[in-house]
C-alpha cells in the first residue's frame, strides 16, 4: 500500500477524466451521495482553516467491474443508473473510502447543487457564532449572487497569480470598498490558492493491483472495502461482490432499485443484501455467500433468467406480511431473514401458496424469540431442505428444525413482560397490540411514539432514605421499573407532541377518556390506580391485562388450536 498526496485541484481534475491516469471513479456498490448543502459548505470552511480530513482509500485496477461517474450537477431525484459506465479492462482508480468528501469537492468546484453553484464570501475570515464558521461558503443561484459573494470555481481553476485574482475581485466593488476589506480579500485569496492549488492537501492510500497484481486480489479488496466502510452505511458482502463482479447483467442496478422501491413503499426497509441472499437460497446454492458463487457465470445467469419470478415471490410474501398480519413497519420486522424460507416456498411451490397454514404463527414466533439471530445461514438451509422433504410449508416441522439447532421458540410471560422502553421487540409487540394504528403516516416524523404512562420525572421524584446518610436520596423506582412494558403505551405523534401528554400524570391524562380509549391502551378502569401512590398496584393489574391480551401466543400447547384456515390474519 502506498501513502500518497496531491493538491485538491489536481485530484478533482482526475474525477471522471479518463485522460488522467484512467480517471477516478466510484464502484457501483458505493452508497448514494447524502451530504446536504450545509455539510458541503462546512467542508470547504474546514479546508480553508487547514483542518485535517480523513485519508482517502483508492484502488488502482484493470478489473472488469461495474463503476460510475461522480455527480457534477446534483439533484435530489437523480438516479444512480444514469451515471453508470461501461465496464472495461483499462487501468482506472476506484474510490473505496472518501466518496462523500470527493463528491462534495466535485460538486463545489466543477458542478452545482440543485442548480446552485458554490460561492465564497471574499470578505469573510472572522469567526461567526453560533455556527462556528470562519470562511463563508454558500450555494447560490448564479443570477442571484451579489457581492461580496464570488464564484469559487472561477478562483480555483484560474491560472492567474494571487495578486491578479485579488485585483480582479477588488475591481468588482467599483472602488466602494474599505482598506480593511481589501486586506481581507488579499488574505483570503492567498489562503484559497495555497490550500486548493499549491499544497498537497489530500492524502490517500493506494491499493495498486495494476503494477502489483499479486499484492491485492479481488478478495483482499472486498474485505478492505467492507472494513473501511464498517463505520458508515452497513454493507453486506454479497451486495458488494454482486456489484463489483457482475458484468453480465446491464440492468441489474435499475431492476434492483425498482424492486426495493416497490417493497419499501409500505414502510419496510428491505435491502440489496437481503435480496441477493434470497436469490442464492432460491437457486439452491445455500444462504451463505462468497466470491466463488458470484464469480460463477451460471449463478449470475440463473438470477438474470429467473429475476421476474424471484421478484414475484418476494412481493407476494411482502404483500402477505403487510396485508395479513399487523407487522407493517421496519421497526416491527426485527429480522428479515425469517422470510427467506417463506419466499423459497412461494417460489418453488406456487400452487400451494394460497393453502399455507399457520404462517402468521411462524412469523410471530420466530420474530419474538429471535430464532434467526446470529449466523442463521445453516438454519435457513435446513428449513428449505425440510420444505422440499415435505413439498409443503408445515410450520410444526419448520419449528422442529429450528429447535434442533438449539434455538428457542418459547414465548413465556417473562419473554413478553421483560420487554422495555428501547427494546428491539417493543414495536413488534405494539404492532400486534395496536392493530388500528397507522404505522406509515405521510410524514416520517409523525410515526407513533412509545410513551411512559407514569412519566419518568414523576417516578424519579419518589425517593427512599439512604441508610448510610439518613438522607432521602435513593430512587425508589429504578430504570427497569420505570421502563417496563406495563408502564408503556403507544401514542400518535399529535398526542405526544407539543401540547400533548408529555409529562402529564395518568390521572389527568385518562380523565374523561372514553371506555374504548382505555380498552385500546389496556388501562385499568379503577381510577384510584392512576395515582402515583398506587403505581405498583397499577403495574400488577396492567400486567394481567397484557398477559390476557396475548394469551394465545403465550401457551405453546395451544398452537394447534390456532385457526388453521389459509392465510388467516393474526387475531
Count the DSSP helices: 26
**Gyration radius, rounded:** 30 Å
| Assembly level | single chain
Percentage of residues in strands: 5-15%
Helix content: 40-55%
Structural class: alpha+beta
Provide structural commentary.
42% of the residues lie in helices and 11% in strands. With 571 residues, the chain is an alpha+beta fold. Helix 10 (272-282) packs across helix 14, helix 13 (307-324) packs across helix 14 and helix 16 runs antiparallel to helix 17 (395-404).
Key descriptive features of the protein:
single chain; 571 residues; alpha+beta; 6-stranded mixed sheet; 26 helices; 42% helix; disordered C terminus
In brief:
The chain is α+β, with helices and mostly antiparallel strands and 571 residues long.
SSE layout:
Blueprint: E1 2-6, H1 8-14, E2 24-27, H2 37-48, E3 56-61, E4 67-68, E5 73-74, E6 92-97, H3 99-110, E7 112-113, E8 117-121, E9 137-140, E10 149-151, H4 152-156, H5 162-171, H6 179-198, E11 202-208, H7 218-228, H8 237-245, H9 252-264, H10 272-282, H11 291-295, H12 297-305, H13 307-324, H14 340-348, H15 359-369, H16 377-390, H17 395-404, H18 413-417, H19 426-433, E12 449-452, H20 456-460, E13 463-465, E14 472-475, H21 479-482, E15 488-491, H22 493-496, H23 506-509, H24 515-520, H25 535-549, H26 551-554
Parallel strand pairs: 2-6, 3-11, 5-7
Antiparallel strand pairs: 1-11, 2-4, 3-6, 8-9, 8-10, 12-15, 13-14
